[in-house]
Amino acid sequence: MRNRYLDLLRALAIVRVVVYHVTGWGSLTLMFPAMSVMFALAGSLMAASLSRSGPMAVGRRLRRLLPSLWVVAAIFVPAMLLTGLPFTPAVLLWLFPVADPPANYWGALALSPIWYLRDYLWFVLASPAALWLFRRFPVPTLLAPYCLLLVIELGIYQNPPVVLRHFGLYFGAWLLGFAHQSGMLRRLSVWILVPTAVALAAVGGAWILTHQGPRGYDLNDIPLGNALWSAAFILVALGRAPATAAWLDRNAVFGRVVTVLNRRALTIYLWHMAFVVALTPLVDVVGWSHQDLLGLAIRVALVFLLVGLVTAVVGWVEDVAAQRPPELIPGGRRPTSRPVRRHAESRTGDDDPSDGPAERRATLVPEQRGRGGDVIAR
Fold first, then answer.
1. How far apart (Å, rounded) are the C-alpha atoms in residues 270 and 289?
2. N or C: which end of the chain has fewer CB within 10 A?
3. Rounded to an integer, what distance in angstroms lies between the CA atom of residue 17 and that of residue 29?
């Protein structure tokens, strides 16, 4: 049985990201540090995959990650080449983005969410070694990314590569996902977990208050505050996560929405910014400022509508990548069939227990579910 609580967290995270990009409200990053939560859920899932499949989990995770990017690249890269993007070998980074793929003047903003895939890819590649270290030295391994970020923010290590900076910023959340998957967070006494979360929030909050960025208290401009505040949030959200959330599916519509947002999270994330950019001229034409709540609500609704349409057209790629039967709208009832008993090593599908076929999902641990310059808001 799946842990729908984790599904709910991911669904809330993707909705928060889209709403934030439309409204620009920095307070949303404080209320719900969505990107760190998404990395923590992904880290938990990756640790579970490595535990079951070993290093083969890396290839399976890349198989899940890249096809949706390739669909985006197949549409936008030719358009950018026709509008001024030079054709160089760097264009191949759109196939495997270990660094920021090139983009032209409009593509740089419309495709800015690619930074997430770049970081995700690096974190997946680093996970086998990181999990080995975590199992032997859990606390030092958990602290390492935050120490790296502190060294960078204090100016001791100047001008680091953006990927290394993001290891400091987000890999700590990924490792907290390891701690969640291993049961380490659940085993923490409330007398340890709560004071630790409060201390992290206090230090992170103090740093945020004294190191405002160009957008005020927007966490995306305050890396160290972001990392500490997010760690506190994750400790509470995952450290005391319920075993399930059966109430979520008591309302069929709400439960279906959560399922769709989970099954199509990557497609929504990759495409939403293009529609945010495309609708931006409405601000001048119609006069919708960021203080016009009605105008913002309409823009949010339009973005979700457009994302829903494109998701219906290309979202099935996520099903194919996960070796699931393609669905136009995920979560529909399927004909029940007699379960097929298979040995673990004979499974051919992806090892995501929340998205795999029903007969395979039942055998897996229910709990795992899981350009980026620094200027683009997350």
1. 25
2. N
3. 9
Say what the pTM is: 0.87
What single-letter DSSP state applies at residue 157? S
- 358 or 321, higher pLDDT: 321
CB atoms within 10 A of CB 68: 23
Q: Per-residue pLDDT tens for 252-307?
A: 999 999 999 999 999 999 999 999 999 887 776 666 666 678 888 888 999 999 99
The amino acid sitting at 84 is: G
Q: What is the C-alpha radius of gyration for the chain, rounded to an integer number of angstroms?
A: 20
Q: What span, in angstroms and rounded, lies between the C-alpha atoms of 49 and 364?
A: 10
Distance of alpha carbon 8 from alpha carbon 352, whole angstroms: 16
Contact 35, 12 (CB under 8 A): no
Residue 276's φ and ψ, nearest 5 degrees, are -60, -45
54: left (phi over 0), alpha (psi -120 to 50) or beta: left
Could you tell me where the beta strands, DSSP code E, fall in the chain? none
Structure tokens at 296: 């913002």
Q: At residue 8, what are phi and psi to the nearest 5 degrees?
A: -65, -40
Task: Count CB-CB contacts under 10 A for residue 301.
Answer: 11
